Amino acid sequence: MFKVRQLEAFHAVMVAGTVTGAAVRLGLSQPAISTLIAGLESDLGFSLFVREKSRLQPTEEAKYLHGAVVGALQGLDGIAQLAADIRDAKAGSLRIAALPMLALEFLPRVAAHFLRDYPGVNVTLQARSSPTVVTLVTTQQFDIGFSETAYDPGWVDAEKLRLRCVCVLPAQHPLAGKDVIRPADLSGLPIVTAPRDHIRTQRLQELFAENGATLSIKVETPLFASMCAFVAEGVGYSIVDPVTAHDFSGRGLVARRFEPAFFNDFAMLFPAGKPRSLVTQAFVRLVAEFLKDYD
């Protein structure tokens, strides 16, 4: 089996025409170059050079072989560069499945920023329901998932996340002038929220009851984005995650701090037992940085 160093020495002699020149190109001693050439000739079973005066003249066999050697060395250079890119997370692919709360605007912002730093990476982002996200990650079709749904820890690894929700109101709403909104302020007013059987709506009902307020459901819709769209049209108020509220800023509604604290819990999911690529690790770090803006 040929050694890469032998091929490099052969190429250097072909280009330089002398052992001395080849030694300079490779930063080796002349005896080392001679040994490498001799070893290659032994492995090949034929001579590569004949000495004429102070230069080495390649044989016809050497000329024929040289083209293939150049291609092989260029291929190795390409592999080395690719390996460096992979090591530095500059090459690879990233497949993300996420609930709409994050997939519609937040994750595209994060991914666009990520791709400016890692232009060699290809990204797939799909918006799916939380149960579907769990399935896609469990079956290892995607590298990262973002879901609110319960998951089996035997099939996925998870990093739990939570965002403190805010109250969104039509821009001209009488409560828009307040810095902090409480259940008592909202009691009896029409709310746009998730379906009544959703755990988040049930928790809201409990929170309002604990504070002596009434949760008056006007519109039921599963997506935070839809809730904000209804609010922007003046239908009522809503309690939504700060990411979606930010996405709707300047579109006919305002976001205000909601007390007592009410959180939206979700998780970042990964296929269980599957090592996370360097690309995945870099993206996860960036997501964490972006989420700090909503603390």
From TrEMBL:
It comes from the Bacteria. Residues 2-59 form the HTH lysR-type domain. Signal peptide: none annotated. Gene3D superfamilies: 3.40.190.290, Winged helix-like DNA-binding domain superfamily/Winged helix DNA-binding domain. This is LysR substrate-binding domain-containing protein. The keyword Cell membrane does not apply. Belongs to the LysR transcriptional regulatory family. PROSITE patterns: HTH_LYSR (PS50931). Keywords: DNA-binding, Transcription, Transcription regulation. The keyword Heme does not apply. InterPro entries: LysR_HTH_N (IPR000847), LysR_subst-bd (IPR005119), NocR_PBP2 (IPR037424), WH-like_DNA-bd_sf (IPR036388), WH_DNA-bd_sf (IPR036390). Pfam families: HTH_1, LysR_substrate. Coiled coil: none annotated.
